[in-house]
Amino acid sequence: MASLYTFDEILSIVNTEIKKIEYGSAPKSLFEPISYILSLGGKRVRPALALMSYNLYKEDVERVIPIALGIEIFHNFTLLHDDLMDRADMRRGNPTVHIKWNDNTAVLSGDAMLIEAYKEIAKIDSQYLKPVLDLFSTTATEICCGQQYDMEFEQRMDVTIAEYLEMIRLKTAVLLACSLKEGAIVAGASAKDAENLYNYGIHVGLGFQLMDDLLDVYGDSSNFGKKIGGDILCNKKTFLFINALLSEEVKDDLISWVNKENYDAAEKIKAVTAIYNKLNLKQKSEDLINDYYKQAVTCLDKVSIDASRKKELYKLAESLMTRIS
Questions:
Q1: Predicted confidence band at 90 (pLDDT cuts at 50, 70, 90)?
Q2: Is residue 79 part of a domain?
Q3: Is the pLDDT at 267 greater than 60, yes or no?
Q4: Phi and psi of 256, rounded to 5°?
Q5: Span 227-237, mean pLDDT?
Q6: In whole angstroms, how large is the CA radius of gyration of the chain?
Q7: pTM above 0.90?
């Protein structure tokens, strides 16, 4: 039986490989932002999942390195463009690319990252290239759809919970799921196992994004890497916000804060957080996160591998969904 790597060991492999990536040397202004955003670190969960999924079946995880790198480069490309669209000034505790350089650089360097992601994916064994590339391309389009929904929601005050959950499925969950399924495909897993790993990723991704929403309000900025209350200040349609808007008890108060053009940022964050507290929305969100965690575990249970080999994936799901405590 193949040796099983721990998550930390997988992470070490991923980080080592990311440092080895070589981009074009000129113009420096195009490639330097790519190296910059990848150097900021992050959880590296997506590339790690590709290796962890493969490692359920086989030991030579270097075979899926191209997928892991392609997915991580692609993920950071989406962050680079998301930050520009959101006018965010911080990413992982550092200035975003459009702040450190400029908007045009953020667009073009992001485009270059998308190309680099495909170049990495294309290095996979030819026998797996078509299914891997097809899934990756479908996932990339889905993520664009999720981002478009997210932007459209900014102009709407009638976003439903179902619409929001579909948006975060597309924007966040599908890439986690893609990472797992692609690792399984290259490992020669059964179609059933690959699908159960994909669904595990979807449920982990949904819970992960809901936790991110919670952390934006209730987290510690020193650990979170972003300013607390950012979603509140830009009236982002999160699970918390939508639930509050559905409550006749606080709806008018919330809308009044949305419509205010001149306000003290700290005061708005405090007031909207008080609205969420009044409706016990932190607990409601945590309950839903826990539901997704249970569904993720159920999907992982169905994967036809001994439970002892899946322990790192069980642990990872739990850690991603308990970050607030």
A1: confident
A2: yes
A3: yes
A4: -60, -35
A5: 89
A6: 20
A7: yes
Question: What's the average model confidence in pLDDT over 161-185?
Answer: 98
Q: What is the dihedral of CA 284, 287, 293, 299, to 10 degrees?
A: -100
Name the residue range of residue 94's domain: 7-320
3-state secondary structure of 90: strand
At 113, the pLDDT band (50, 70, 90 cuts) reads: very high
The H or E element that residue 95 is part of is strand 94-95
Distance CA(178)–CA(175), nearest Å, equals 5
Q: Are 255 and 182 in contact (CB under 8 A)?
A: no
Q: What is the CATH number of the domain that holds 266?
A: 1.10.600.10
The answer to whether 149 touches 170, Cβ cutoff 8 Å, is yes
Give the list of residues 6+ apart from residue 273 with CB closer than 8 angstroms, or none.
217, 218, 229, 232
How many beta carbons lie within 10 A of that of residue 291, not counting itself?
14
**Residue 237 half-sphere exposure toward CB, CA atoms < 13 A:** 24
Give the DSSP letter of residue 22: -
Instruction: Report how far apart, in Å, the C-alpha atoms of 90 and of each of 74, 95, 267 are.
Output: 19, 5, 21
* Whether residue 33 has a cis bond before it, omega within 30° of 0: no
Query: Which tokens belong to 106?
Result: 């953020």
Q: Is residue 325 part of a domain?
A: no
Q: Are the C-beta atoms of residues 177 and 293 closer than 8 Å to each other?
A: no
Residue 254 falls within a domain, yes or no? yes
Do residues 318 and 10 make contact, with C-beta atoms less than 8 angstroms apart? no
Domain count, the chain: 1
In degrees and rounded to multiples of 5, residue 96 shows phi and psi of -70, 165
Token couple for 118: 């495909």
Q: Could you give the count of Cα atoms lying within 13 Å of 164 in the half-sphere of its Cβ?
A: 19
Helix (H) or strand (E) holding 245: helix 239-245
- 324 pairs with which residues across the strands? none
Q: Of 320, 265, 254, 324, which is closest to residue 293 (Cα–Cα)?
A: 320
Inside any domain, residue 2: no
Helix, strand, coil share (%) of the chain residues, nearest 5: 75, 0, 25
